[in-house]
Specification:
Radius of gyration: 43 Å
Largest sheet: 5 strands, antiparallel
Number of strands: 16
Number of domains: 4
Shape: flat
Helix content: 40-55%
Strand order of the largest sheet: 2-4-6-5-3
Low-confidence stretches: 1-23, 532-541
Structural class: alpha+beta
Order of helices and strands: HEEHEHEHEEEEEEEHEHHHEEEHHHEHH
């Protein structure tokens, strides 16, 4: 196991003094690109589509978004850019739970007005709760374009031709089919007609920058902190360069939900251990050093060797959390150990620190798979097959009896004056043949009574039923199996002083026991000796 904190670091940190950083709740403001702004506006503002919709605010009419989408799509087609057109953008702003107590419409208008004070663009905002009412948030959809002071209309100076993608082409021939007809989706703008109407100015480059989102995080955080009443609910913007790790948002129907939840769990465990380390006496600089060595450097090395791989990052986080947990344990060990006159720790034995990687949270197994149905089906088919096997054995017995009777008849026919015996044997054979036909008919009837044509269909059904049962049993075995746990890992901190050296050091700093204490100890030992001798005597008896 490669350990990034060497012994010197551990000894040195004992003598350092660093302040403790109190962690507040982090604010959450996320930006997303919208490729269907009309649909998105309808989604966030529709009571039919939202379970907990409290308020809606917009500074433009619904037709605004249709015109905006049209111009954005037209400009995107003209640009020839690959990908999907961005029609608008959206901010999702998480709010402290207590803000639900405010007037909903007033709260939404106030938060939106902060954005509109700086950006004169169209917007639509909605105040929501999630289904379980654990996440109060605002959706703020906004345009990247300001409205033109005067509508710009472009007049065609000649006939203009547009293909199915809305792209302007040079000749009419390019939009006609083999028969010379206009292809579906193509169009012709005649000379003198308006071929383009622009209601909006070009997109603001500011909205594309990282600085815009960072600024909005700070602005919204400040606004929230102004109106929130509980000091414990005040927020701070997450600092990327700090000792903590930011968690990720899980959207609706996210196919990577399980992966993100596991990642967030490890990030939260790291943050908890950061708090513990700081409260135990570590400095922020030391925790940052741990983060850099255990996470930043390890991630960089992993990317160089293997590229982007979320599974490898999970392993790095597991080891990092385990190591930070071990660092907290080391701090506690050193907190109460003896020290020399200069304050250096005195350790007369090797210290073993548990740095086992943090295990992932147990996955929700749900209900244990039931094999009741499959077992019942196998049992039902076994009963059918057993009936058929017994009937086949009966048929076989009758056939054997007929063979014996026919053999006896053959011997009788060789003799004279045994006509009566011959007739008796022939009668028995005829009776057995009737029994045989009945037995065969019964065999044919068994599968038919259970919905099968013949024995082959029953055996095929049994094969399928057993395969289904095995499948469920394997699922049960997987359900019953315990979650794999990381292999135990330890860091050894070697002793830095021998026992005799420690005793001498203790004497030098006034830790020698007094003569009175030593005499009392000796007296106690002497008093214990007779009782021990008495016990031995009783044992001899």
């Amino acid at each position: 196991m490669k350990v990034h904190f060497d012994d010197d670091f551990l000894w040195q940190r004992i003598r350092r003094k660093g302040g403790i950083v109190n962690r507040r709740n982090h604010s959450f403001v996320m930006e997303s690109k919208l490729h269907d702004v009309k649909g998105r506006v309808n989604y966030i503002s529709s009571p039919e589509r939202q379970e907990n919709l409290y308020a809606v605010f917009a500074n433009v009419e619904d037709s605004y978004w249709e015109l905006l989408a049209e111009q954005n799509q037209r400009d995107f087609a003209k640009s020839g850019t690959e990908g999907t057109c961005i029609e608008a953008r959206e901010l999702i702003i998480m709010l402290p739970p207590s803000l639900i107590e405010y007037d909903h419409e007033l709260l939404l208008k106030y938060m939106t007005s902060v954005f509109l004070e700086k950006y004169d663009v169209g917007c639509c905002a909605a105040l929501h709760h999630n289904k379980s009412k654990t996440n109060l948030h605002i959706h703020l959809i906004f345009s990247e374009r300001e409205i033109q002071q005067e509508v710009e209309r472009k007049i065609a100076s000649r006939n203009m031709f547009y293909n199915e993608k809305g792209k302007h082409v040079r000749t009419k021939k390019e939009i006609l089919d083999e028969d010379g007809n206009l292809r579906p989706g193509c169009k012709i703008i005649k000379k003198g007609e308006v071929y383009e109407t622009n209601f909006f100015q070009p997109k603001k480059e500011e909205f594309k920058s990282n600085a815009f989102l960072e600024n909005m995080k700070q602005v919204m955080t400040d606004v929230i902190n102004e109106i929130v009443k509980d000091e414990n609910e005040k927020l701070q913007v997450f600092q990327k360069g700090g000792p903590y790790l930011a968690t990720k948002k899980i959207g609706k129907n996210n196919p990577k939900e399980a992966e993100i939840r596991a990642d967030n769990y490890l990030r939260q465990e790291w943050n908890r251990n950061v708090d513990r380390a700081l409260l135990t006496g570590a400095s922020e600089m030391e925790v940052m050093a741990a983060k850099q060595s255990q996470i930043d450097e390890s991630v960089a090395e992993s990317i160089r060797e293997h590229g982007q791989d979320p599974k490898l990052f999970t392993g790095i986080l597991q080891k990092a959390v385990g190591y930070l947990r071990g660092f907290v344990e080391f701090l506690r060990e050193m907190k109460y150990c003896d020290r020399d006159t200069e304050g250096n720790p005195l350790i007369d034995h090797d210290v073993r620190i548990d740095i086992t990687p943090e295990p992932l949270p147990a996955k929700s197994k749900g209900k244990r798979p039931s094999s009741e149905k499959q077992e019942a089906e196998v049992m039902r088919l076994e009963q059918i097959l057993n009936k058929m096997k017994k009937q086949e054995q009966k048929i076989y017995a009758i056939e054997k009896a007929i063979v014996k009777l026919e053999k006896d008849l053959k011997e009788v026919k060789k003799k004279w004056f045994h006509r009566k015996e011959q007739k008796e044997l022939e009668g028995k054979i005829e009776t057995k043949k009737v029994q045989l036909e009945k037995a065969k008919a019964t065999l044919d009837l068994i599968p038919a009574q259970n919905g099968y044509q013949n024995a082959l269909e029953v055996t095929k059904a049994m094969k399928i039923a057993k395969a289904e049962l095995k499948k469920v049993q394997l699922a049960q075995k997987a359900w019953d199996a315990p979650e794999p746990q990381p292999e135990k890992m330890y860091l050894r901190i070697p002793a830095n002083v021998q026992n005799m050296e420690k005793q001498e050091m203790q004497k030098s700093i006034g830790q020698r026991r007094s003569i009175h204490e030593r005499l009392e100890e000796k007296k106690h030992m002497v008093e214990q000796q007779p009782s021990k001798r008495g016990q031995r005597d009783m044992g001899d008896r």
